Amino acid sequence: MPVSRFVLTSGLHLYAQSRSEAQFQYDEIFGHDCYKVAGLRPNAVVVDVGANIGLYTLFVKQHNPDAHIYAFEPIPESAEAFEKNILLHGLRDVRLTRCGIGAQPEPRAPFTYYPNTPGNSTRYPEQKQLQIDLLTHRHPRLDYRSEYRAEIVSAPIEPLSAVLPSSPVIDLLKVDAEGAELDILIGVKDRDWQRIKRVVLEVQDVDRHLAKIASLLTDRGYVAEVRPSPMIEPELRTFLVTASR
Fold first, then answer.
1. In CATH, which of 1.10.287.470, 3.40.50.150, 3.40.1000.10, 3.30.70.1020 is domain 4-105+160-244?
2. Where does 116-235 have alpha helices with state H?
3. pLDDT in the model for residue 77
4. Would you say 119 and 21 are in contact if contact means Cβ atoms under 8 Å apart?
5. How far, in Å, are 17, 56, 71 from residue 27 at the CA level?
6. Disulfide engineering: 19 pairs with which of 3, 6, 106, 239, CB 3.0-4.6 Å?
7. CA–CA dist 14, 86 (Å, integer)
């Protein structure tokens, strides 16, 4: 689906592949404050992994206009929309890197890209089956299997420690990577954890990912708070984790 310019119900203009998905993400981020930014210091350094079309970056800049944002997005069309949105809204001190983040470097890793629902694009398409089955069961007249028609795209993968900014403090690390969250955290070296003051991420609890991530963060000195993701069906077992020192 090509990148197009839309107007959301709030009046916000932005580029996206899907207006309905962009509206959902806007409501999630701006309406429910899923990835909290309260308390960020002036000139905060924010790392946005799974930046998608840039709505979280827009949200951070709305609250902290002088924040320095380092964003990462591997899906080409989503990265294109991100760059257009940064230009559209005249945002400064935003740097996008077109790559995925993982435990180990890979020059060309496959991603499953859903043109009709691009925010669900993932390295782990098997984890999307629960979502597809639930939607198909609840809305049998709608063809969700076609909605999740997939294409394969490739992008490089880098460990997070290899691409983190060199600033002494990283105020906030946000992760929304459709199943790759544990891989991303594993790619942070011990020396870098001390620089990261707060972590916020969305996790679908498959294969005990939630417990593994909470344990990893606790072992590195964080206090983790877990709450259900407010706009996602409980059957999908999706949670928001906020971890602070």
1. 3.40.50.150
2. 129-138, 144-147, 160-163, 181-186, 190-193, 209-219
3. 97
4. yes
5. 17, 11, 21
6. 6
7. 9
21: its two tokens: 């998905």
Q: How many CB atoms lie within 10 A of CB 7?
A: 10
Only one residue has tokens 């404050």, namely 33
User: What does the angle CA 118 – CA 237 – CA 74 come to, to the nearest 5 degrees?
Assistant: 25
Q: How many CA atoms lie within 13 A of 111 on its CB side?
A: 31
Which residues of the chain, if any, have pLDDT below 70?
142, 144
pTM: 0.94
pLDDT tens across 197-231, in order?
999 999 999 889 999 999 999 999 999 999 999 98
Cα separation of 91 and 14, whole Å? 13
CB 56, CB 155: distance < 8 Å: no
* Domain range list for the chain: 4-105+160-244
SS3 (DSSP) at 109 = strand
> Cα–Cα distance between 240 and 227 in angstroms, integer?
5
Q: How high is the pLDDT of residue 17? A: 96
Strand pairing of 151-159 and 106-113?
A: antiparallel
Residue position matching structure tokens 């409501």 = 27
- The amino acid occupying position 37 is V
d(CA 52, CA 28): 14
* Residue 228 region by backbone torsions, left for phi larger than 0, else alpha for psi between -120 and 50, else beta: beta
Residue 113 bridge partners (DSSP): 151
Which neighbouring-strand residues pair with 15? 5
